[in-house]
Amino acid sequence: MLYWILLCQTYKAIQRQALPLEIPMMSFKYGGRLRDREIRLVNVIEADQTPLHVQLAVHQLDDVEFEALSYVWGDPSNKLEIMCNGQPFGVTENVHSALLERRRRDLKLLLWVDALCINQSDTDERTHQVRMMRAIYNSAKTVIVWLGQDGPNDSEGTELVERVYRECGGLSFDIESVREGVRVDDFDYIERGFPTPFRHPSTAENPGWKSAFELLKNSWFTRVWVVQELLVAKQSVIWRGRLDLDPNAILFAAMLVDTKRDLWLDFNRYAASSCHAINIARLYFRYRKKGQQPFWDTLCLCRNLQASDLRDKYFALVGISSGLVYELVDYNKTLREVHAQVGCLCLRGLPERGLPCSGLDLLAYGHYRDHTSSTFGAVSWVPGLISADRFAITIAEAYPTAELCKTKRGYAAARYMEDYGFLFDMEQTLAVEQKLAALTSLCRVRRD
């Protein structure tokens, strides 16, 4: 009885103000398990109540109009209470702020938010819903990318990237081919079609670029699931607090950072970022131009993106990689089992589903073991596929004739470079030798 009185008193206090949950909560009752093609959707109640009130109901995916939220969960240990179907429900601070912003905008459409709409404690339901993830985000009328509350200088950054996109948006379709044409000693982007208004003599000191860099290093760009959520969306919009931003504009800015040397140096120095936004931008523009990409290529670009469940590092790529089967997604399997299964897929491929064999690529990475491999007993014949060195670049990206010898290039304080690889054909790789010979004062080359 005493516990019940204390619980009631605490609940009344929370009603007056949204506070981090510090009391034991009874599990939210979801009701029956979802059936085939069923999803739950959230309706944010308009009334200005504290705590926030929402309603959760089951709908057929093919028979309802809704929007979907793409976001970073945030710290799971710091939760705020909302009322869901009259029951207390704990959500992270980032989800809470997104729901509040949606209520402020008074939007009528239902919303899909995985933290609420999937029973995270039911392994079978998680498997079922994650296999539907591509269909869910592709069916949404709009995918809302939530970057958190806006800062005091965000408007300068959003205005800048939108201006850049407006004035050279014609390059958006070809910008990936422009990037693929860049060589180690070839950074003359102006001759490759970039208009002169964006040659800033000191971008690091430009408040607009500073603000843009802050947007590009937002934690949203570090999450592996956002890649699929963005790529398969029919329509998407970025919310940064009360600001709206076209995803094409911010991703175009990321590609400019990737191709424009002064922006790259300033971004690297200012943001100290592992450039997740650049990799997501590459995938985005490739997907728009060519559709689903080979699993190995997608995996290499997404290896450094994060997931609270390491199995999601693979599961999140199923909907955007060609040839993969949704049966790969199974939360009843251990990380070791999933890791080995992915290794088999890369090694042998699935020709009947259009998944090419990437065996030589896999073997080229055989020497690489990431720091996570030992924690879950990874099989020895599969290289570390879960994480990668910062700024890892492959020679094959710059020199297509070396496609069979993908290597990693390491940097130490930007003073020297060391390459490891295999020489297959002197005539075809002569250009490589000439390039490396010209850099002997900066790097030492060792052939294994």
UniProtKB/TrEMBL annotation:
Residues 66-229 form the Heterokaryon incompatibility domain. PANTHER family: ANKYRIN REPEAT DOMAIN-CONTAINING PROTEIN 39 HOMOLOG-RELATED, HETEROKARYON INCOMPATIBILITY DOMAIN-CONTAINING PROTEIN. This is HET-domain-containing protein. It comes from Coniochaeta ligniaria NRRL 30616. The lineage of its organism: Eukaryota, Fungi, Dikarya, Ascomycota, Pezizomycotina.
